[in-house]
Amino acid sequence: MTSSTMGPLNNLEQWDDFVKARYRTDRKKEEFRVFDESSPQVVKEFYKQNHALQTYEFAHAKKQEYGKLAKTKMGIWEAMDRLNALVDDSDPDTDLSQMEHNLQTAETIRKDGNPRWMILTGFIHDMGKVLCLFDEPQWAVVGDTFPTGCAWSGTIVFPQYFEANPDKKRPELQTACGVYSEHCGLDNVEMSWGHDEYLYHVTRPYLPEEAQYMIRYHSFYPAHREGAYRHLMSAKDEKLFDGVRAFNPYDLYSKSDVKPSLKDLKPFYEDLVAEFFPAQINW
């Protein structure tokens, strides 16, 4: 995979230079996820594409295409190995490989004494980014997620970029509920397409419902961080989002420049993966 096929990066060195200039190990929590005019150009260009192209019809079509799980068969470790070539254009906070970030997240969950299914969720939560293996551009793989088919919340990062989205010209999609009904439940909402939604469909047969919500909505910051879109959420969504909010700090604040040792940790995670997944699964 090269940067030219995955997003607006000109080259990987451009991203690395930004991270070296910005990253500090002593960063405060409020210094993570800063999205404004000071954000790197690569992040702003990413969200311009994402917000212009993630339409209601696009999200629906991608869910129909990938929900069949007919692309390939591979094991969790094979998918994880193939992720290491990916640099996430939407993330201003880390330049670690996907394996290293996943291990950081899982190890922090583990150290806090959480159940094994949650440790596993931390380890695999970003694996849906294998969408890039199927030639999907990064704007359709990573980044914050949001409902399509209704008005966009002002709490979404860079909301001004939605001016270029064709759904802006469809009045029926620009009301609070849009094509949905109040408290219809998020399972009935077409979320913007990306790695969260994809991995949810891939792994749902094997994981408890709490884990499914953590995977499916961990990038849905407008809801679990800002409290938006509650008018679409059911009582079940409200309850299970407590787990999403509990998971989010492990994903966000575990980012560090100290790289975990895969060699030392792999035996534990091999046993953990084998406890929940067969040798190969459908993608």
What would you say this structure looks like, in words?
By secondary structure, the protein is mostly helical. Helix content is 43%, strand content 1%. It has a two-stranded antiparallel ribbon. α5 crosses α10 and α7 (195-203) runs antiparallel to α8 (209-217). The protein starts with 11 loop residues before the first helix and ends with a strand. Residues 1-7 and 9-33 have low confidence and may be disordered. It has eleven helices and two strands; from the N terminus they run αααβααααααααβ. The protein is globular, with a radius of gyration of 18 Å.
Major sheet: 2 strands, antiparallel
> Numbering strands along the chain, what is their spatial order in the largest sheet?
1-2
Q: What is the helix/strand order?
A: HHHEHHHHHHHHE
- Percent of residues in β-strands: under 5%
Summarize the structure.
The chain has 283 residues and is mainly α. The protein has helices at residues 12-22, 41-53, 56-66, 76-83, 98-111, 116-124, 195-203, 209-217, 221-224, 235-253, 262-276; strands at residues 73-74, 281-282.
